[in-house]
């Protein structure tokens, strides 16, 4: 699994480290938002990508 996040509405993406089932994201200042993207691939080569634009606002 690969998790990425964007703080510019999805124009650019940064890889988020995953450890012990948790993801760490460096949130922008208050008044912004964070978009999330998850990419998975199984052993047969099947892939899925889920993107949530403006998943949550920052405070």
What can you tell me about this protein's structure?
The strands form two sheets. The chain has a four-stranded antiparallel beta sheet with strand order 2-1-5-6, with no helix packed on it. The chain has a two-stranded antiparallel ribbon with strand order 3-4. The chain is elongated. The chain contains no helices and six strands. The protein has strands at 2-6, 14-16, 18-19, 22-23, 33-41, 47-57. Helices cover 0% and strands 54% of the residues. Strand 1 (2-6) and strand 2 form a beta hairpin. The chain is mostly beta strands and 59 residues long.
Can I get a quick summary?
With 59 residues, the chain is an all-beta fold.
Secondary-structure map with pairings?
Blueprint: E1 2-6, E2 14-16, E3 18-19, E4 22-23, E5 33-41, E6 47-57
Antiparallel strand pairs: 1-2, 1-5, 3-4, 5-6
Evaluate the radius of gyration.
Answer: 12 Å
Q: What percent of residues adopt helix (DSSP H or I)?
A: under 10%
Counted by DSSP, the helix tally is: 0
Q: Kindly report the spatial arrangement of strands forming the biggest sheet.
A: 2-1-5-6
Instruction: Sketch the topology as an H/E string, one letter per element.
Output: EEEEEE
The global form is: elongated
Largest sheet: 4 strands, antiparallel
Instruction: Give the DSSP E fraction (strand runs of 2 or more residues).
Output: over 45%
Count the strands? Answer: 6
Query: What would you call the structural class?
Result: mainly beta
- Low-pLDDT stretches are none
